[in-house]
Amino acid sequence: MRHKAIFFALLLCIASPLTALQAQEGSNRIGLGDYGQTTVLDNRFNPAISFIGDLVATWSDDEGIEAGADGFKLRGAEVGLFGAVDNAYEFHGIIFFDEEEVELEEAYVIATDWLTPTSHIKAGRFNMDFGKLSPIHDGELPMMDKPSVLQEYIGGSLRGTGAEVHWWSPLGDASVIRGSLGLFQSAEGDGHFILGPGAGHHHHEDEEEEEEGPLRETGDFAVNARLTTLFDVSDSSTVQLGGTLMTAPERVFGVDEDDIQNVDKSVMGFDLTYVSTNESDGSGYRFQAEALVNDQDEGELDETDPLNPVFNVTNTEATGFYVMAERTMDKYNTIGFSYNQYEHAEDSAEESSDFGLFYTKKLNEFNRLRFEVRSFKDLALEEDGVEEIVDFTAVSLQWTVLLGSHGHGLEW
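The structure corresponding to this sequence follows.
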């Protein structure tokens, strides 16, 4: 009897969409139900799908990193789903897989017809509009990793759940101004790093890892704002100037009452980009620089007086920058360099820098190889005030493959 019940249930499932399709024969939108849904036999309204795989092999002479950090690593595989909900809405979803976990990186809606023809609203979970390289996914970077200064100050990419308003306007015939303002539940650093401070390549003394607790007050929100202008300097070259400010809410860290501390953080960035392109053969140049100021207050709970516990607040202001340049010889071959120098976010007396050279070979639009050499230097102050220099060199080979629909859009 059970097998017969399953058989009849399958018949009903198969018959239902056929009946729905037959009922739609006279409709102008064949394949849609009464409420706009697609039927099970129609795929014309499915989203565009992309798949990106990123494999890296790294060797270094850094003796301070954990065992197994060198060698082959699947940095990640990324699945993207993109589609128009209707004429006024788009939906984007990005799921990231690595060797250990699955992560919903982004899921957001873009409303293009709510305010004005030159503005839109972005809502959901996504990378905040901070600076030039922070919002970009790892597979689209000009080098292997996010710059070390971005890893140190914001965790690579700033991600949050909330909404951003974007607007733009022409300035004369050869320039455009664009701005954005976002409100988020919190600002979270996110990245999938191979080298740099985000990958554990700072040589601090062993520190206990702190666990993140809840928001100190549910009314606290993170705010992100960006203003940038893009203008032509010749028929083949453009210059972009931009500024960004992010303020994060007060957060409480630590799960034990004896280890509670409060962090209030803001980061300001200024960026400059020059791009020159020869459209006839795809060759060109790019120069990019970004300077950042990280300001954070850290408060540790002092329970000397149990009846009146207080937070002892320590303010740290750190600065850093990166510069990068690349020469595109044709649409398949690019060489370039990058340089980072920055003070550590928790202790501005400590400083790090790194210099890298990279060569990118595009086998085609969907298949890319990259060879990179980077030299790192950490400068730390020991307890007796003596400077300790720790340096190492790393060699990396990266292979990135793309399947399906993908696009990079206009750089802002």
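The CA atoms of residues 80 and 94 lie 4 Å apart.
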